[in-house]
Write a structure and sequence with these properties.
The complex is a heterotetramer of chains A (113), B (409), C (143) and D (103). With 113 residues, chain A is of the alpha+beta class. Chain A contains two helices and seven strands. A seven-stranded mixed β-sheet of chain A has the order 5-6-1-2-3-4-7, with no helix packed on it. The radius of gyration of chain A is 15 Å and the shape is globular. Chain B has one domain: Up-down Bundle (Amino acid/polyamine transporter I). Helix content of chain B is 80%, strand content 0%. Chain B is built from 16 helices and no strands. Chain B is globular. Chain C has one domain. Chain C is 83% helix and 0% strand. Classes of the chains: A alpha+beta (113), B mainly alpha (409), C mainly alpha (143), D alpha+beta (103). The interface between A and D is large, with 41 and 36 residues.
Amino acid sequence: MRLNDLLGRRVLDTHGDVIGGVADVRLVQDGPMLVSMQRALRVDGLIVVENRATRLFGYERHVGPELLRRLVHWRLGEVWYLPWDDVEDITDDAVTTARSRTDLHRLEDFARY
Amino acid sequence: MKKVLGVTLGILTAIGGFVDIGDLVTNALVGARFGLHLAWVVIVGVIGICLYAEMCGRVVAMSGRPVFDLIRERLGPRTGLLTLVASFLVTLLTLIAEIGGVALAFELASGVNYLLWMPLAAFAVWLVIWRVKFSRLEQVFGLMGLLLVVFAVALFKLGPDWGELLHQATRPHPIGHEDWSTYAYFAIALFGAAMTPYEVFFFSSGGVEEKWTRRDLVTARSNVFVGFPLGGILSLAIMGCTAVLFLPAGIQVGTLGQVTLPVAVALGKIGLAIVLIGVFAATFGAALETALSCGYTIAQYRGWQWGKLVRPREASRFHVVMIVCIVLAMLTLLTSVDPVLVTEYSVVFAAMALPLTYLPILIVANDPDYVGKETNGPLRNAFGLVYLALLVVASLAAIPLMIITKGGQ
Amino acid sequence: MRRAVAITLLTILILSGCGSPDQKLRSAAAQSARSAASEVSTTRLAVEQLRAQHLWTRSAGQIVKDAEKGVETAASSFSAQQPSTPTSTRLYEQVTKTLDDAQTAVTAVRIALGNDDLAAAEQQLPALRQSATDLSRIGELAQ
Amino acid sequence: MPRTPDTSGRVLHAQLHLLDRQLIDQADGHLAGKIDDVELDLDADPPVVAALITGRERITARRIAAIDTAVTVVVEDLDLDYYDNWVENHVIAKIPGAGDATE
């Protein structure tokens, strides 16, 4: 699957309600060993934003002029983190999760790196 | 000692390199029409370019990434492409104006029509880019551009009423037959001339060409914080000269000859010779910078090999872009369009392209992935945001004002 | 009835925003005169500096050549105006004559410099000064 | 407090850190295009980044040598310079001095 196809795709919760769109894919470099003696980039989960804008400008990481970051976040609405285990299915026009909107985790609640 | 020399050389180069045809024409024109009543815009513009050029220099020194890499990374391919088209067209327009400026300087010195000089100037620009090392090209034309200091000398020699000049400078409002719309229009033109986008493209790409590292931060900063303001003072001297000489006589500036006339009045033939060499160096140097910037922006957006630190054949697409641009500039000038008029429009269009160019710089200068611990402090960010707001206002107001004032008439 | 028509016409005229035809012509005259005055004064300055040996003949010639083009542009843009009342016709004729005088003087200087005849160019100085004064006066007619 | 994601390895964001980044050839340090897209293998266990896409070329994940402000890759037999070479052979090489260093 191509990243550009996944970005911006609708995310549906267990009730079939749209909760937002895919904004980014979180990768962790602890996958299987590759030939080049590096570990593969494992897909850890999806960053989902309420207003389906696809550009976060990297602001999920709390950098940048405060005012600009707030402006971006205000446009994005809620930002959630959807761990890969919670992703149920990816179809041509939507990503579905087993969770319901109310028990999604906000990205901010996860430890920053 | 060698280090001090390097820093001094960098500063001198920055002063000479700051002034180009846009600054020459816009400052002279504004001085003749508004006196120093718009001088504050030059100061605002210089602070802005210092602020953002310093961020660029820091990002380059810490990460090795030039500005257009950042623009595509942070704005994505689509908005990035929009920024590319806008800033590329403005830079090309500036290149046309600079090559025209070189030819006009020769016309003034020789009395031979500039259209005959123009192909020669264009060819020389290409040849220097093709054959001469980056650092040499920057230093030679930067240092020769310093000759424009003659404008400051001329201003003293003209013996102006300094009190009157200060009086004008501290009263920001239109005078005589001008109204607020032309006042605002030329404020945007001056702002665009001072902060024109190719300056950061060239500055940051130049940092990569010269392989800046963390150790070169001092050089980068001294160039920016000493060189650019002194370049700004040169701009003000040009404005002062026409304010003293042309404003009372009701002379409006529309040709390069009129731009240089105050120096001849004050210092005679020697002054004229010096100012013509200075104008040649400034416009020729800027023609090199804009031609290179045309190549830098497209190559950096597409990820092609670019730069003068490799042999031309290793960066073939980069060189082809520059050749095409120089040929386009030549063809445009052959339609006998007035280069001074092209300059007047180019600085206003520059103002329009600015916000999308400077936004990614501000974002990345805060990103530890790029600059490590050297992120912007709160003061820099506050200034950065104020300027971003100013740029947005100028960019939105540029076209309506251009229509209302019929291009500043 | 007649009165109603007159009022309507007046309203249209005011609403159309271009003011009376007289005013329109005055404003065009002022603008052309100001740009012509600029070129005439540039020529005057160039000749004076040449006399003081502050300029090369070639450069002065180039400056005057450009000024001549500028005066021509100003004169031809004004001559395209359409005077429609007796007052405007009078103004039109007067301004056209002043612009013509300016053009003649600048052209004479250009020719003199082309022939390296500084004396002939200097002879035009009084005419240039007079022309600049006249043009400036017209320039004050409107904003 | 929700479970903190497993952070034993380095954390990257595909769009932020990979997409639209500059590619660099590890062999000679030359610039080799931009990352136009990233191919994810979501059916693998665990799901991983399978390849980087630039223009028409596909760079498999095992060729990635380093990910920094630019991404260094092992190019070897990949033809990333196809267009650059074409322009070089048909235009630039024909101009005198194309192969010389500048002075």
